[in-house]
Amino acid sequence: MAIPVETFFLTPDAQGTLQAQIQQMVAEGILSGRFQRGERLPSTRALARHLGVSRITVTLSYTELQANDYLTSRGRSGYYVSDSAPEPPAFSTPQKRHETVDWSRAIGQRFSGGVTPRRPSDWARYRYPFIYGQTDPTLFDHANWRLCAIQALGVPNFRALTTDYYDQDDPELIEFIARHTLPRRGIIANPDEILVTMGAQNALWLTTQVLLNPRRTAVIETPCYPALRDILTLSRCRLAPVPVDGQGLPPDAIPQGADVIFTTPSHHCPTSVTMPLDRRRALLARARDLDALIVEDDYEFETAYLAPASPALKSLDTDGRVIYAGSFSKSLFPGLRLGYLVGSAEFIQEARALRASVLRHPPGHMQRTAAYFLRLGHYDALIKRTAKALHTRRLVIEAELAHHGLTVAGQSTHGGSSVWVKLAAGLDTAQLAETLRLRDVLIEPGQPFFVGADAPTNFCRLGYSSIQADLIPEGISRLAAALT
Amino acid sequence: MAIPVETFFLTPDAQGTLQAQIQQMVAEGILSGRFQRGERLPSTRALARHLGVSRITVTLSYTELQANDYLTSRGRSGYYVSDSAPEPPAFSTPQKRHETVDWSRAIGQRFSGGVTPRRPSDWARYRYPFIYGQTDPTLFDHANWRLCAIQALGVPNFRALTTDYYDQDDPELIEFIARHTLPRRGIIANPDEILVTMGAQNALWLTTQVLLNPRRTAVIETPCYPALRDILTLSRCRLAPVPVDGQGLPPDAIPQGADVIFTTPSHHCPTSVTMPLDRRRALLARARDLDALIVEDDYEFETAYLAPASPALKSLDTDGRVIYAGSFSKSLFPGLRLGYLVGSAEFIQEARALRASVLRHPPGHMQRTAAYFLRLGHYDALIKRTAKALHTRRLVIEAELAHHGLTVAGQSTHGGSSVWVKLAAGLDTAQLAETLRLRDVLIEPGQPFFVGADAPTNFCRLGYSSIQADLIPEGISRLAAALT
């Protein structure tokens, strides 16, 4: 492709002749890797006019660069970066800047350094990736997603694609969520009680900002979703971790003074335990006694293949006390970045204002595509197919773990896409993960899920949403072999 | 379409027989508008199994509902919502909830109530929309955008579409921005100095969070972009508004104690004034003296059709003192929600961590589509075509304003897509906008752009990015007529 003429600037106080400056700009572009072999330079006429110099100056610069093999001339079609031009260095080019800003002082608030583990971005290159939350290309209905996206790109949807919705959402997606998605969870909500978010991450973040401040106390489950813990830590609220048992969060253990209770009743993260109906009622009663709010992260309810999904905690809530966070990241794909919040209109109004300030709205095209995919029934078919595959994988992984005498801690009664495994006391699964990585196996160490000083190191999560059933036995064998 | 069986739940402590409960669920679904005429009910067998009741109970409920004309039976194909079923009320259905939460207490932080004006979402239905920042379907290259999106939906891009990038971005978009977009602004940056954001709004928000806190002072231009003012107000930093003159922000007027200076040198918002090179250098020198940072919002540099775009302030910065915010919202479309931040790696690291906490990353599909559109040269062609059309419109609107004796305040020397108009002292453009709206003309009142107590009411912004040149004269005539 052609290098645009706008790339070139003369610096008024630069050293050297104009010709030398032009040569230097071109050479630096090539050496820094910005101009690549075979790319066409601007014509001498265009560059001369752009820089306000004579054409002969540019021609002399180009000729000199040609002699040095930076450029090659192809007759009337102009000058190109030579195929034998010097290679840009593999290391980063030295900056001409001499930065004087003291960033240790200039940064007003720090956000790096959370506990959320960084998973390798090249996970797909591992043969046995027991990782969580990525999309399996063998299960996802890519063809129909593509068709829905193409429909959403059509001329009748021009406004849905391009418009600035300000603080609003795609009305078609909101309508589908209200009429179909939420009623399946037993929830009835009006459009002003629903906000589309950039995935569940964004839903939890918005909720935290609206409900908490440094004088308020948030209850979190331990172990819990590490990203939630990072979000809460950044909000500088008070944190009250409550250990979960075999039925999820125990209401009696929630301390006095709790303002907001974060919970994952459908599938506790990371143990996959489902909270029974009795406990859900008890939790609501406890929240009422404390005059606390509940944030229900209903991730993964769609993967209920062992028993039907139980209605959401929100469906039992007559007080308006439960704020519900849903996501399409697990059931569709995480790169979609679409989720939703459901709560009282007063709450949604504040979350909407904050979302508008932070990012305005999730892209209209993604919203409209999701609305089509849902409405045409592809979503339901996908969920059925996924649940079936996950069920098979679950049976295999449980059998293999049992075969090797490994312990599943926290039995999921409804399904899910991961198992939580307890290994021998004192074992460090972070080290284990490193060892296994060299043997083509990825696992997730459990320590970051725990809140508090004495976090055990001998747990790990094995996701099975991105590994085929027939690869599970060898993967678990390698895990078991690394333990001996 | 079929009503999914999962929509139905039996409440354990509900009143009445099972049959009555089922009837009620169906009737409520119809009356609330969730089940619509012609939609198929679950089969009696499926619903019975789902609810754990006998099939005869479901059959009796359906028969009763049929007698009441809620349902109709179509022989072996099942039960459908009757075409003469009761209509859902046009008003919202009464909630069974009795909300007890005191939201005035439960909300920990408020975000609503900003000064950013809400523009009518039905602006496209007005014949003379002098509004700013929406996309003109006659200019945007929808066909090629669609082709790029379809390419980005292809099988080879499956990972780019679906993957959870965690805190990272699409490497192809980052590469294009680094190699092509930024060099046109005179900026050389490494990939770790670039972060993709959800539009310029998100870029400014992230910057504010990282750089400011309640003990720091932000300088803003007055008048200024109202959304920036809202963002800064929510950050609870100290605000120092500095009035702009005919060359933009005057460096000498920046007070001692300034920590971060927000400026729009390419086109001042809302006056469209371009800051000359000398003043840019003076501004950098002033920032160095104060040891302050500068946030350069380089929106709309692409619409330079009167004179070539001058290099960005960032290109003159050798200290690392300038943070650069770019956007594709104006040059492509706002619904894309893509922009970018450029700054020192230390700063970008914190902004990246915050973005990951708030929303993880902008959707991969939008990033990849933009990368293709840019790389294939459609973007440059679009910008040229847009600039040409804007130039024509600009000549028309200036001529019409002059014809009616109206004053353009703040002459843009480079281009832009709006004019800033000063009307007679004491006139209230908010009232004027209301009057004009009834006459099919939309304008933007100027008061929200000003910071401080004595904001003048007699300014307005007339955008011309969404109105055809041939409609401008009549629109301006109506504006002038409303003034007499």
UniProtKB/TrEMBL annotation, chains A, B:
InterPro entries: Aminotransferase_I/II_large, HTH_trans_reg/aminotransferase, PyrdxlP-dep_Trfase, PyrdxlP-dep_Trfase_major, Tscrpt_reg_HTH_GntR, WH-like_DNA-bd_sf, WH_DNA-bd_sf. Pfam families: Aminotran_1_2 (PF00155), GntR (PF00392). Residues 16-84 form the HTH gntR-type domain. PROSITE patterns: HTH_GNTR. The keyword Ribonucleoprotein does not apply. Keywords: DNA-binding, Pyridoxal phosphate, Transcription, Transcription regulation. It comes from the Bacteria. GO terms for molecular function: DNA binding; DNA-binding transcription factor activity; pyridoxal phosphate binding. In the C-terminal section; belongs to the class-I pyridoxal-phosphate-dependent aminotransferase family. This is Transcriptional regulator, GntR family. It comes from Primorskyibacter flagellatus.
